[in-house]
Every structure is written in C-alpha cells, then in structure tokens.
Amino acid sequence: MANKIYQNPQGALEGLLRDGMTIMSGGFGLSGNPESLIPVIRQSGVKNLTVISNNAGADGFGLWMLLETRQVARMISSYVGENKLFEQQYLSGQLELELNPQGTLAERIRAGGAGIPAFYTKTGYGTVVAEGKPVEEFDGEMYIRETWLRSDLSIVKAWRADPSGNLMFRRTARNFNPEMAMAGRVTVAEVEEIVPAGTFDPDCVHLPGIYVDRLVQSTINEKRIEKLTTRPREDNNG
C-alpha cells in the first residue's frame, strides 16, 4: 500500500498547486477548516483560483488569508456571512461570486463525488437562482436543474485518521468535509491525530480512505469561537 502520510503541510501539497485551479475547502464558519493547509496555499503564490466553500472563513482566519492576498478570482459559496473582506471584494467587483442555496451547494458537491452530473430541485424556482437554468415539471411541481461540482484539489480537516486514510470527524466539524473529499480529483486531509491501523471500528469510519490521497497531521488547531454568547450568572443566594 502506498504511504499516504506526509511529514508537514508543505509536503502534503507539493506538486499539486497551480494557477487557475479549482479548490474545494471544507468547513462551516470556523468549524472544520483545513487551517494548516490554507497558509501553504497562500505561501505558494498561486493565483486566479476558483474556491468552493460554504463561506470564506471569517475575518483573519481560514480562506480569508487567500482573499487578502487576492489569490482567489471566483468563489462558489452559500454564505458571505461575517467576512467583511469577502463582502467588500464582491461588492467592489474584485471577486466573482456564485451564490447557492446551502442545501443546493451541498447536493452539488455530493453529486460531484457520486458521479451524478445533474439533478433537479425546487429550491430557487421562480427566483434569480433559476435564471438560465433548465426547468422541468415533476408531479405538478416545477424544478430547476443544477449541475455537479468537482475540484482539482480538495482540502479537508478531520479529527482522526488511520494510515489508510480512513477518517473520523468530530461533531459539527464534519459539515462539508466528507462530500468535498469525495468530489476532489486529489484530496489532502489534515487531521488532529493519526492512529495505528486497526484502531477504528469500521462502523465508526465517516469517510473511507479510498477518497483520501494524502494525509498530514495538522499543525494548527485553534478551535475558535465565531460568536460567543453569554448570559449573566444566576444569583443562587436568594
């Protein structure tokens, strides 16, 4: 079996990056971002990238790093969110943006991994989302046709992996990561922990290793909180 484990994030991406490529990047808000691999892409200087991600990180974190250096020419996303740089570049015309309903984005990525070139959905019918897309009627309801999404490279973040690349994700950090791994021509996974072969119960594997080409232990695991909400402590003396 070929060795999938690389010693550092730079080595894990060596030979994979080029100008104009399409990259899928896992994560939802600040959860499950491949935060060790993104800085390597930034340092490489590749440009004119199309990046597929639910959002583009948050101010100062995640894919924001690639927006700051103007390496991203086009985003395919579902949420601009709290990322002020993302919003600014889009509104000023510096960044091309294709917004998708979030469920549609997830299904387009899943379809790419499953080899399904197109599917129909009611979401967006009668809105600007449907402009220029084929429409068909099924059982008296109108549906628009959406196409798959695939990438030249998918970068994902997982909790644990074994040497074969079988992955486990932790709670909400799972988000888009498994589907993006399946939809990439090449997938690089950074993980918090690499465990010996045979550690995983097969029923607990969230993504089979067949979808992972390269593995690296993550060097950044910040686990930031995007919005911290608190309430006053109750007075229990009363």
Task: Provide a short characterization of the protein structure.
This protein has helices spanning 9-13, 38-44, 64-68, 84-91, 102-114, 177-183, and strands at 5-6, 22-25, 49-52, 72-77, 96-99, 118-121, 135-138, 141-147, 153-161, 167-168, 187-194, 214-217. The protein has one domain (5-217): Glutaconate Coenzyme A-transferase, CATH 3.40.1080.10. The protein contains 6 helices and 12 strands.
Alpha-carbon Rg, integer: 19 Å
Q: Output the number of helix runs.
A: 6
Low-confidence stretches: none
| Biggest beta sheet attributes | 9 strands, mixed
> How much beta, percentage-wise?
15-25%
Indicate the CATH topology: Glutaconate Coenzyme A-transferase
* Class from helix and strand fractions: alpha/beta
Mean pLDDT: 93
Specify the CATH architecture: 3-Layer(aba) Sandwich
Shape: globular
CATH superfamily: Glutaconate Coenzyme A-transferase
The CA-CA distance between the termini, in Å, is 66 Å
Q: Which CATH class applies here?
A: Alpha Beta
Order of helices and strands: EHEHEHEHEHEEEEEHEE
Helix content: 10-25%
Number of domains: 1
DSSP, total strands: 12
Question: Topology, pairings included?
Answer:
Layout: E1 5-6, H1 9-13, E2 22-25, H2 38-44, E3 49-52, H3 64-68, E4 72-77, H4 84-91, E5 96-99, H5 102-114, E6 118-121, E7 135-138, E8 141-147, E9 153-161, E10 167-168, H6 177-183, E11 187-194, E12 214-217
Parallel strand pairs: 1-12, 2-3, 2-9, 3-4, 4-5, 9-11, 11-12
Antiparallel strand pairs: 6-8, 7-8, 9-10
